[in-house]
Amino acid sequence: MTNRDQDLQYFIDACFAAFDQTVSDPEGRRSIAEIFRLLALLGEQREGGGTRMPACVHLHNALHVSPATESLRRTLDAFRAIEPKITWRRREDTTGTASENFNDGHANGMIIGPGGIELRSDVWLGVTLMAPKTRYPDHTHAPEETYLVMSEGEFQHGESSWFSPGVGGTFYNPPGIWHAMRSVEKPLLAFWALRPCTGRANSTD
């Protein structure tokens, strides 16, 4: 592969600008800088188109937001262009903490990483979509992780109370921390970036 898919490159550039302008946590900034520095190198492009899950019926409403900055608007526009190439998947609730509607009420899409549009093992860049009033299960994984939240919704990590980052909000999860999320009256959409090489990944987000 000598050239990256143009739409994917546009998304990477827009996403980096959005993360860079919004992430304030020092560890999050370090992690994001490392991830996008690695993404300057090309990976293997997966052949074929994407597939959707039942929760993807909420994608249109999830994308119907008005971000405050140009970098966030560009990220959403770029995501719309690559979304048909994403293979959306479910995860299992192994802790019994998800809502009853979780199975059909959520979908995870790997943009870059295992099964992604670009196949990588060194960095993961993905997205989570949830139907209204859906709770994601408590989960943990070895890699550190930074979220970029593109809708209303609530999150929890470690011993924290539930908090709402808001559209364009970010937060950093240290390696191994337990965390969860839940949508409210509208669908939830959030991007996440991980460095699996900092520890063995045992779950997708």
In short:
This protein is α+β, with helices and mostly antiparallel strands and 205 residues long. The protein has 5 helices and 10 strands, in the order H-H-E-H-H-E-H-E-E-E-E-E-E-E-E.
Write the layout of secondary structure elements.
Blueprint: H1 6-22, H2 26-38, E1 44-45, H3 59-62, H4 70-82, E2 88-89, H5 102-105, E3 106-112, E4 118-119, E5 124-130, E6 145-149, E7 154-157, E8 170-173, E9 179-182, E10 188-194
Antiparallel strand pairs: 1-4, 2-3, 3-5, 5-10, 6-8, 6-10, 7-9
Low-confidence stretches: 198-203
Give the overall shape, derived from the CA principal axes.
globular
Provide the residue-averaged pLDDT: 93
Strand order of the largest sheet: 2-3-5-10-6-8
Describe the structure.
- The protein has a 6-stranded antiparallel beta sheet.
- The protein has helices at residues 6-22, 26-38, 59-62, 70-82, 102-105, and strands at residues 44-45, 88-89, 106-112, 118-119, 124-130, 145-149, 154-157, 170-173, 179-182, 188-194.
- Residues 198-203 have low confidence and may be disordered.
- The protein is built from 5 helices and 10 strands, in the order H-H-E-H-H-E-H-E-E-E-E-E-E-E-E.
- The chain starts with 5 loop residues before the first helix and ends in an 11-residue tail after the last strand.
- Helix 1 runs antiparallel to helix 4.
- By secondary structure, it is an alpha+beta fold.
